């Protein structure tokens, strides 16, 4: 939070989760600047709407210029590990035989995305997540798409 310089952690009553909230314009602006140019999915449309909203409300005359999707090689930065941590699932199941050795081992890693990102604007944009999933498939050398 030092880079963003704001935010609070909220522990909702009678829940088993935490919320990290940023509610002041300065923190939200800092987040937009950090994310700008580092997004690889159609969610960039939402960031661009946020940037437009922030630019209209700018009191210092400084505007954030909207950058395009990050098309750099997936191995060049930690984006993919964060994406998998957020939306991936690792699974391993096994049975123990009478000697206590693992048998019938089943394991997998799953990464799921909606086929399309639901945009709230009327501007026609490519909202398919297929492109990024196919880039990940290529990077991980997955042979088949089913």
Automatic annotation (TrEMBL):
Entry-linked InterPro entries: Homing_endonucl, LAGLIDADG_Endonuclease
Keywords: Mitochondrion
Protein name (database record): Intronic protein at intron 3 of cox1 protein
Organism listed in the record: Tricholoma matsutake
Phylogenetic lineage: Eukaryota, Fungi, Dikarya, Basidiomycota, Agaricomycotina
């Amino acid at each position: 939070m030092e880079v963003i310089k704001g935010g609070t952690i909220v522990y909702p009553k009678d829940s088993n989760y935490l919320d990290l909230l940023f509610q002041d314009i300065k923190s939200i602006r800092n987040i937009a600047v950090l994310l700008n140019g580092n997004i690889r999915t159609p969610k960039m449309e939402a960031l661009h709407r946020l940037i437009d909203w922030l630019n209209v409300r700018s009191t210092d005359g400084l505007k954030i210029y909207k950058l395009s999707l990050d098309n750099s090689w997936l191995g060049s930065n930690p984006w993919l590990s964060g994406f998998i941590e957020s939306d991936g699932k690792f699974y391993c199941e096994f049975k123990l035989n009478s000697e206590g050795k693992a048998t019938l081992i089943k394991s997998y890693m799953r990464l799921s995305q909606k086929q399309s990102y639901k945009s709230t604007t009327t501007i026609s944009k490519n909202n398919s997540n297929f492109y990024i999933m196919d880039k990940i498939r290529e990077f991980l050398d997955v042979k088949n798409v089913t």
